[in-house]
Amino acid sequence: MPTFVYMTRCDGCGECVDICPSDIMHIDRTYRRAYNIEPNFCWECYSCVKACPQHAIDVRGYADFAPLGHSVRVLREEEKGMISWKIKYRDGRVKEFRFPIRTTPWGSIKPPADYTVPDAAGLGTALLAHEPEALEVDALPTLPLSRNNKV
Amino acid sequence: MALFSSRKTRFVDSDILIIGGGFGGCGATYESRYWGRNLKIVLVEKANIERSGAVAHGLSAINCYMGMRWDENRPEDHVRYARNDLMGLVREDLVFDIARHVDATVHKFEEWGLPIMKNQETGRYLREGRWQIMIHGESYKPIIAEAARKSASEVYNRIMVTHLLLDKTRPDRVAGAVGFSVRDGNYYVFRAKAVIVAAGGASHIYKARSIGEGVGRTWYAPWSSASAYGLLIPVGVKMTQMENKIVLARFKDGYGPVGAWFLLLKAYATNAYGERYEEARFEEIKALVGKYAEQQPVPTCLRNHAMLEEIKAGRGPIYMQTQASLDSREKEEIGWEDFLDMTIGQAVVWASQNIDPKEKPSELITSEPYIMGSHATCSGAWASGPEDCAPADYQWGYNRMMSIDGLFGAGDTIGGSAHKFSSGSFTEGRIAGKSAVRYVTERSGERPEVDEAEIKRLEETIFMPLENYTVGRNEIVAGSVSPSYISPLQGLQRLEKIMDEYAGGISTFYTANEPMLRRGLELLSMLKEDLQKLGAEDLHQLQRAWELNHRVWTSESVTRHTLYRQETRWPGYYYRADYPKLDDVEWHVFTASRYDPKSGEWDMSKLPVHHIVD
Ligand SMILES: Cc1cc2nc3c(=O)[nH]c(=O)nc-3n(C[C@H](O)[C@H](O)[C@H](O)COP(=O)(O)OP(=O)(O)OC[C@H]3O[C@@H](n4cnc5c(N)ncnc54)[C@H](O)[C@@H]3O)c2cc1C
Ligand code: SF4
Ligand code: SF4
Q1: Rounded CA separation B159/A109 (Å)
Q2: First-to-last CA distance in chain A?
C-alpha cells in the first residue's frame, strides 16, 4: 500500500501530514496515529518517510506489480548533509548507498533583498538578477532583431 | 451546510500573486523580490512548498544547462535542438530566452548548496548528455523552497486555488484568484495587481497503465493536476499546442527515467531477442515524416514510435541492457542514485522483482500521455516573448504575459517552449517575475477591482461538492453508489476512460480519428455537466474535486486541439489515423484555441511559426 505506518512507532506528531504533496497522510481519529488514506494517489516519493522523526513510515511496493518481501529504507541527516539508503531484495540481497544532499548549511541562502538595490533603469533591460556576472560570460546573448519574422 | 458554517472568508491583497510554488513559482518569487523590494509578493501553494510539485523526490540531473562559460553550447544551439526534437515547431524566441539565462540560474543553485557533480579531469560540471548535468539532487526542492520563502512577503501552503478573478470592468485584465484552505476550509480571496500562474502540468488525464494501488506511480506526479491550464482556459486565455501530449519511454511500472542510462552509462535498448531495433526502422519512419527522420539526436517521439512498432510486431518486451554498463562501483552508484534521487519507486520495483541491473536487463515501456509544457513537449498558454528579440507578432508589451493583461506564467504553464525542465522552469519564473514587477511599477496607479457578486458566486460553486455530499448521502444507507452525486475518483476514472479510448491513449496505441474525437467531446460535455454533481465528503475530497475540474477543462482543450490539427505531427506521441503523415504545407504552424466564457464557444486558429535561428 505504498506508505504504511507502524502502530508502535508513530506518536501522531503530524510531520507527515504537513509534508505529503498528495495530502494523503492523515491522522486516524481513533488511534491518533497517521495512515495513508489514499494509497492509489501515493507516488512513493518518500517525503513523509524522510520527514518522520520516529521512522514510523515504511513503503511496501504497489500490490499490482511489486512482489512482497522487499524494502527500501532511508535515513536523511540534514545536519550532515547526507542521505543513506538500504535496499533489501525479495531474495535477501542487500545494497547500501550514501549520497550528499547539500553543500551549505541549511538556512544559509542569501535573500534577494540583501543584495544592493538594482538601478531603476535595469527594470527595462533583459538582464535578470545577478546578470551578467552570474552567467560567467561577458554579456547576455541576444539575437539581431533584423533577422526576425522569417517564416 | 451546517458542518461548514464556521467557514470564514479571508482576503489577501498583494502586488504580485504567484500561484504554485514549484520550480516556476519559486523562481518567480525570488526574482520579483530582487526587482520589487517594496512590493507585497504572495506565494500560494496547494501542498507545502518544501516538497511540492514534480520535484518532490528530488532530481538526479539538471536537464537544461548551456555551459556558455566553457564554450560548451550557445543558446542558439539549444533552439536548434528543441526545434528538432519537436518536429520543427517551437517558439524560438521563448526557447532562446530561457537558454541565454539558464546558466546564471544553475550557478546560483550551486552557490545555494546544491551538490553538482564534477568531471574529475576537466573540473567542469559532469555532463550526462549535451544539455544535462548530473547532481546529487535529493534536496533540490527544499533548497529552492528556502530561497522562495526568503523572498516572499507571505507563503500560503495548503490552499487549493480554483479560479482566476478578472477585473470588474475590464474582463481582459486579471484581478486575482480564489481558492480554499484544505486544512480549515476557509475561503480565500487573493486580490493582486499581477498574477503569475506556475501550477504545473498534468498526469491522470489519460488512463494509466497500472490498474490498482499503483495508479499513483505515474511518471509525472499524481498531484500534477492540470491547474496550469484549468485555471486559464475557463477565463478565456489563448492556449497553444495542447494536442502536443507527451509519451515517455521509461522503465516499466516504476517509471524510472532513462536519460542517465542512455546518455551517461551508455546502456542501450533492444527487443526481446537482443536486436537493436531503432536503426532498422529508419526508412519506414522517413516515409512518414520525411526530413525530420534524419535529425540528430532522433526526436523523442520517433524513438517512441520505433519502440511501439516493435511491440506491435510481437517482439517485446523491450529491454534496457544495463548489465554491461555497470562495470564499476562508481557507475553502479550513479545508476542507483539516479532513481533514489528522483524515482524511488523504481528502486522498489527492482528490489521486489529481484532485478539487479548489474546482472539483468530491465523492461522499458511507453507511458500513458501527459500534458505539460516544460519537457520534450510544449503545451500551454500563448505568451508574449522577450522585448529585445521576439518577432513582432509574438510580442505585446511584457515578456511571458498571456493574452490577459497582468497575467503571467512560467514552467509547464507556458506553451511553445519545450525543453525547459527544472532549471529552465525556474528561469522562466524569474523572467516572468521581473516582467510582473515592471508591469506593476509602470501601472502603479492601477488597482484592479473584483466584483463582489462574482466572489459570492464562486464561493457557492467552490463548496458545492460538500453540500452535494451532505444532502445526497442521506438518501442512501451506505456505500459509494448514489443516484445524485459521484465522487471525485469516480469522475476521474470516467475522464481517464474517455481520453484513453477516444483521444489517443494506451488502449488504442495512441491512435484517434475525427469520429473518435467527436464522440469523446460528446462524452466530455456530459462529464462537464456532471461536475456540478460531484460529492466531496471532506476537504481532502474537495481538493480532489477541483483537481478533477481542472483536468476536465484541460482534456477538452487537448481533444479539440487534437481534432483541429489534421496531421500526425509527432508519431510516437499520438496518431491521427485519418491523417497518418506529417504535413508541412498545411501544418507548419502552432495551433491556438480560445474558449469564450460569455458564449461558451471555442475558437480554433493557426499561428505562424517564425524561425529566428538558422
Ligand atoms: C520523474 C521526473 C523526472 C524529472 N527529471 C528531470 C531531470 O532529471 N532534470 C530536470 O531538469 N527536470 C526533470 N523533470 C522536470 C521538472 O520537474 C519540471 O520540468 C518542472 O518541475 C516544471 O516546473 P513547474 O513549476 O511548471 O511545475 P512544478 O514544479 O510541478 O510546480 C507546480 C506547483 O504548483 C502547485 N499547484 C498545482 N496546482 C495548484 C493549485 N490549484 N493551487 C495551488 N498550487 C498548485 C503544485 O503543488 C506545485 O508545487 C522531471 C520530472 C519528473 C516528474
Ligand atoms: S511523522 Fe511519523 S510519528 Fe509523526 S504522525 Fe507521521 S508517522 Fe506518526
Ligand atoms: S510517499 Fe509521498 S505521496 Fe506517498 S504518502 Fe508519503 S509523502 Fe505522500
Answers
A1: 26
A2: 54
